[in-house]
Amino acid sequence: MKFSTACLATFASLTSSGMAAPVYNTNSSAELQSAVSQEIFGWTKPTFPELYHTCNSTNARMLNVALQESLEVSAYAKDRLLKYGADDVYYKRWFGNGSIFTVMGVFDHLVESSKSGVLFRCDDVEGLCAANPGYYAGHHRVSVPAETVICDYFYMSKKPISSICFEGNIIDVGPSHYAGIDLFHRYLHVPSMNLDYVGEYAEELDELIDYAENNSTFAVRNTDNYLYYMADVYSSSIVPGGCLGELS
Ligand SMILES: *[C@@H]1O[C@H](CO)[C@@H](O)[C@H](O)[C@H]1NC(C)=O
Ligand SMILES: *[C@@H]1O[C@H](CO)[C@@H](O)[C@H](O)[C@H]1NC(C)=O
Ligand SMILES: *[C@@H]1O[C@H](CO)[C@@H](O)[C@H](O)[C@H]1NC(C)=O
Ligand SMILES: *[C@@H]1O[C@H](CO)[C@@H](O)[C@H](O)[C@H]1NC(C)=O
Ligand SMILES: *[C@@H]1O[C@H](CO)[C@@H](O)[C@H](O)[C@H]1NC(C)=O
User: Which of 1, 181, 213, 240 has its CA 20 to 30 A from that of 124?
Assistant: First the structure.
């Protein structure tokens, strides 16, 4: 009740302010909750990490856009799972005969389960961004496992999902080239999100395909299988034929 009243108030003030540019605050959760409240991204109750106060308004604006893109990309994935099931060629390619219950559950959990305590911060608190210039777009904090540092290089190197298929195929650039998919991957480093179940067991493309074909129990537990599945489904949904590239 409280929530819908707040939404109406936001809506009313936007309408009455006519063409005035909306001003975004720096609080990811609050902003995004109202932005996605109309189910435009295919999820009814997405949750978001908190952005620490060290994320300034510029950082927060870029992160909020990327978080919205995470919803968009994962909504295409969920839609495909619901419509085409486990016999789908895209499903088989990345998850083999792994359980679709697991895959559906992982998407639901990552998007809609509570992210209480999950924090993104924009200060280079451990100095790892500075120590890995042009390489670290962010990192999980092993000593404070609910926290993720987003480095400035994230904003410089990660691309909007709308540019998929523009700079090269998915296999060449990798799915984490896209900001929305990269943030999805960052959730999976956080214990309350990966539940010690999904992890980075393999990252080389031939290993991912090997999992799908020969070890599907681990295909549905491996982070990169999810990232490739999302990019593959998304690109083929918006570009005829998609742009996966050659799976040698
Ligand atoms: C963001 O908003 C929530 C809910 O209004 C509040 O509890 C939280 O303290 C805010 N966080 C920041 C960093 O401002
Ligand atoms: C926010 O921080 C970034 C570096 O992360 C900087 O480039 C930008 O100018 C800052 N923006 C504001 C509004 O302070
Ligand atoms: C699956 O395992 C078989 C037998 O070890 C192997 O020949 C095949 O190359 C594997 N598939 C992939 C995609 O690695
Ligand atoms: C899944 O595929 C593997 C490898 O081909 C096979 O050993 C296993 O029996 C299959 N599982 C199911 C449930 O079909
Ligand atoms: C499947 O992959 C896991 C993790 O890499 C490995 O421990 C396990 O031995 C593999 N299983 C098979 C049947 O190859």
Answer: 181
**Consecutive 10-residue averages of pLDDT for the chain (248 residues):** 35 39 54 64 88 94 94 95 97 98 98 94 97 98 97 98 96 97 97 97 97 98 98 95 92
Q: Which distant-in-sequence residues (6+ apart) come within 8 Å of 243 by Cβ?
A: 164, 165, 169, 170, 235
Architecture of domain 48-115+160-188+197-238: 3-Layer(aba) Sandwich (3.40)
The pTM score is: 0.86
How many CB atoms neighbour CB 246 within 10 A? Answer: 7
Q: Is residue 58 in contact with ligand 2, taking CB distance under 6 Å?
A: yes
First-to-last C-alpha distance (Å) of the chain: 54
* Nearest ligand for residue 206 CA: 3
In 3-86, the DSSP E strands lie at 50-51
- Which amino acid is present at 231? A
The span from the CA of 211 to the CA of 95, in Å, is 8
Query: How many residues are present in the chain?
Result: 248
Pocket of ligand 1 (CB under 6 A): 27, 29-30, 50, 53
